[in-house]
Amino acid sequence: MRSLFRLASPAPKPPPRLQRDAIPFVLSDGRRVDVLRVRDPRAKRLRLSVGERGARLTVPLRASLVSGDRFLLEHRDWLTEQLARQPGDAVPLVRGEAAVLPLRGERLPLRWAEGRVARLVRDDAGLAMQLPARAGDAAIGRALRDFYEAEARADVGRWLPAYLPGLPRPPSRIRLRVLSSQWGSLAPDGTLSLDLALVLGRPSAFEYVLVHELCHLIRADHSRAFWREVEARCPDWRAARDYFRDDGRRLKADLHALLA
After folding, report:
1. Among 82, 83, 81, CA closest to 92
2. Same structural domain, 246 and 159
């Protein structure tokens, strides 16, 4: 017979989840950055780290947010030095301030203009960010991401038709995403994901990643047979691989900084 105590006992509480938010911070050199603050139930101490996605402050659940802010201020000089060593040189856009944006291996000048909707357009003079009078940082970020995604899709749309005849089937879907480490992937359902940072760099390297993932529709592994398929379509794939080895971190860091 079941115990009445067991029947009446409450369900176990779910474990605490990570809590994330971004906090603005001014570095020692006057630059403004966003620091990702993470309340981590597994953390045992305050920790400040810097990676391709920027600065991250980890705060244990038992520590107060005030102690985290104080810890961040105490390490301001260290954070400034570490961010200066990161491979990317792009910085978040500030309305009205002169800037250049990376696109297909070039650096294009950006100017600011009034507009009815927030959008980034390309013309003979470079790039123009058109913004309504009350548009803020979020609108700038959305316009920038929409522009890069449209440019990346235009590149894929030019290249893809030439490779489809040699494939057993086309990809079911193509997604442009901000990836942390990979440049592309192919899901079992045929969804092809590409890193949005690819459109910032050399077009030939971007096309290689597309070819690489398309070849996984033929071979799901990285066997010699797979690489023969890649080389038949992209003979210079080794040069693209070397490019990512030398400049890949910079491309990813630039994109994260611009979309922060």
Report:
1. 83
2. yes
What is the 8-class DSSP label of residue 68?
H
Q: Which DSSP string corresponds to 1-23? A: ---HHHHHSPPPPPPPPPEEEEE
**Assigned domain for 10 exists:** no
Please name the residue that has the structure tokens 């080389």: 231
Q: Detail the DSSP E strand segments found in 41-131.
A: 47-51, 54-60, 99-103, 106-114, 119-123, 126-131
pTM of structure: 0.70
Domain of residue 49: give its range. 19-84
| Domain-terminating residue out of 84, 107, 128 | 84
What is the distance between the alpha carbons of residues 104 and 159, in angstroms, rounded to a whole number? 15
Q: Are residues 160 and 245 in the same domain?
A: yes
| Strand ranges (E), 105-217 | 106-114, 119-123, 126-131, 173-177, 184-186, 191-195
Interval 6-65: pLDDT, tens? 555 566 666 677 888 888 888 887 777 788 899 988 888 999 988 766 788 999 988 999
Question: Cβ neighbours of residue 217 under 8 Å, at least 6 residues apart?
Answer: 167, 168, 169, 171, 186, 190
8-state DSSP, 198: G
Work out how many domains the chain is built from and give that number: 3
> What are 121-170's pLDDT values in tens digits?
998 888 999 999 998 889 999 999 999 999 999 999 999 999 999 999 99
- Is 75:28 a contact under the CB 8 Å cutoff? no
